[in-house]
């Protein structure tokens, strides 16, 4: 229950959490744990809030794997799906005409697929076809 307060704080700040909830949750948990180690209960609250913000900014892949995944996905030379409008988190892809590919094991994201939309690699939640991360 330690991360509930930081998450509530972030919600009031208006930080989007639609598809990057895992980054937020993971960041909040890690930040709370580290903060508590350093400064006790108050440190857990502050660390959780900061960790959640960083986790959301880093997205699902995280900073360290983002560029590697982008290079991999574009190097595979998969066909790009053309969609009208911007490519963004939360967009639901059409049922027809989109091919989804497995994310390689090295990225440890078995619950997601990827495809290329308007030239951008995107991570997709296969059940809903919702874009959860755009890899720029």
Overall mean confidence score, pLDDT: 75
Oligomeric state of the chains? single chain
Q: Structural class of the helices, strands and pairings?
A: alpha+beta
Described by strand count, sense and barrel closure, the largest sheet is: 5 strands, mixed
The span between the termini is 34 Å
Unreliable parts: 1-22, 52-57
The tally of helices reads 3
Provide tags for this entry.
136 residues; alpha+beta; disordered N terminus
Question: How is the topology of this model organized?
Answer:
Elements: H1 4-13, H2 21-58, H3 63-75, E1 80-81, E2 101-102, E3 113-117, E4 120-125, E5 130-134
Parallel strand pairs: 1-3
Antiparallel strand pairs: 2-3, 3-4, 4-5
What this model shows, in words?
Strands 1, 2, 3, 4 and 5 form a 5-stranded mixed sheet that branches. The chain has 3 helices and 5 strands; from the N terminus they run αααβββββ. The chain is an alpha+beta fold.
Put the structure in a nutshell:
The chain contains three helices and five strands. With 136 residues, the protein is an alpha+beta fold. It is elongated and about 50 Å long.
